[in-house]
Amino acid sequence: MIRPTLLIGLLSLCVLTTGRSQDAAPHGLSAKEAEIVAKAGAGMPQFAADLQEAVNTSSATEDLAGVERMGAIVVRQMSELGFNARWVPQPAGTGRAGCVVAEHRGTRGKRILIIGHLDTVYPGGNFRLEGGRAFGSGTSDMKGGNLVAIHALRSLRAAGALEGTQIIAVFSGDEESPGRPLAVVRSELIEAAKRSDVALAFEAAVNDTVVIARRGSMKWTLATNGVSAHSSGIFSPDVGDGAIYETSRILNSFREELRDEDGLTFNAALVAGGATASLEATEAHAKGKANITPGEAFVLGDLRAIDQNQVDRVKARMAEIVSRNLPHTTAKITFGDDAYPPMAATQENYALLAQIDQVSRDLGYGGLKAFDPRARGAGDVSFVAPFIPGLDGLGIRGEMEHNPGESADLASVPELVKRTAILIYRLTR
Question: Are 398 and 139 in contact, with CB atoms under 8 Å apart?
Fold first, then answer.
């Protein structure tokens, strides 16, 4: 077993001497900003120890006790920074553990909301170091991302730059598999957004990009009915086309008429049809015979769209397609009311992109561009997008998220911590 002090030394060497970050030097920084950057560099050895502690605290979403233990670590870390930090449990009926809410009160500059999450897809306790990468559940998504934010705040505090700032941090315990209803499990995050001006979210960074838009997502259910009769009568004036043909017509019309919508996807994920059929949550069942015209069919799907206008327009078009029934069939589409709202690419988000791009250039790391929202799923930042502008993808650079081989690039840490710290400093002046 590697001793903690030796591990810190090894990881410090990886973080401070590999990759792009070693070449960066401040260019367009003020004296205070240069001090913040220096404090950030001095804190890199502790990043390694913090990441080991976080990854080895197993906190898969369904492990409620593990998520709460991870929450206790974050409460301690945020309290040490002078934040009023607390654990907020979720109601028992949601099936989820809770979240951490930490607040630093002040009146200077913009009010910042920091967004992270405590849970992982796979259990943790599996931290290891290979070369310049850290492996283990949550290294990238997003225990490493949480620590980018926390270490940025540490460097600000060490430089005396947190004084007078208003910053709220919310770390949810169920981002990977949210509890229901969403209005309940995201209530603390939404309320924090209503008292903030800008959101900064720390899902994994991808190369030289940041996220200014995410697609929203919702479930939809299609139910079709036909006349269940002897199959010799299918297509006749008395029997009609049956439920499965009606379902096929609708799905194919979706594909043909909607697939060219920019930024839109619509997936038919689960289908069942027969003489009788049923759909319940994530399970479907059907019974029938080859000589029976199907009387029932069900489809479960999802819809992902780039902004609310597209959501509304596509829902109306899908409903219109469903209404063109084949003979002796009926169909109904229902859209789930527990949806992730889209994070649209607003002018305010583009302005934030310009600010962080300038920070990156001033630090000597080069420019940043917007990540293609079609290549990224929904996230917690989506819940605050209707209220305030924001950026996501500010966390650590990693690979293989949601996979047993998940890892994080330790060489990216100094760049990302410094970039976050200077961005927060400039926003709060």
Answer: yes
**What's the confidence (pLDDT) of residue 26?**
59
pLDDT band at 378 (very low <50, low <70, confident <90, very high): confident
Per-residue confidence (pLDDT) for residue 13, from 0 to 100: 44
Question: Do 50 and 134 touch, CB atoms closer than 8 A?
Answer: no
Tokens at 341, concatenated: 């709202």
* First CA to last CA distance, the chain: 46
The contacts of residue 355 (CB under 8 Å, 6+ apart) are 423, 426, 427
CB 136, CB 13: distance < 8 Å: no
Question: Quick check: 387 pLDDT over 90?
Answer: yes
Token digits for 88?
Answer: 């907020």
Tokens of 255: 């594909």
pLDDT given at position 23: 43
| Residue 1: CB atoms within 10 Å | 5
Tokens matching residue 249 = 């017509």
Strand, coil or helix: 424:
helix
Q: What are phi and psi of 80, to 5 degrees?
A: -65, -20
> Which ranges constitute the DSSP H helices of 129-284?
143-158, 182-185, 187-194, 242-258
- Residues β-bridged to residue 297: 224, 273
In this prediction, residues 395-422 reach a mean pLDDT of 93
Provide the whole-model pTM.
0.86
**Exposed/middle/buried for residue 213 (C-beta within 10 Å: 0-12, 13-18, 19+):** buried
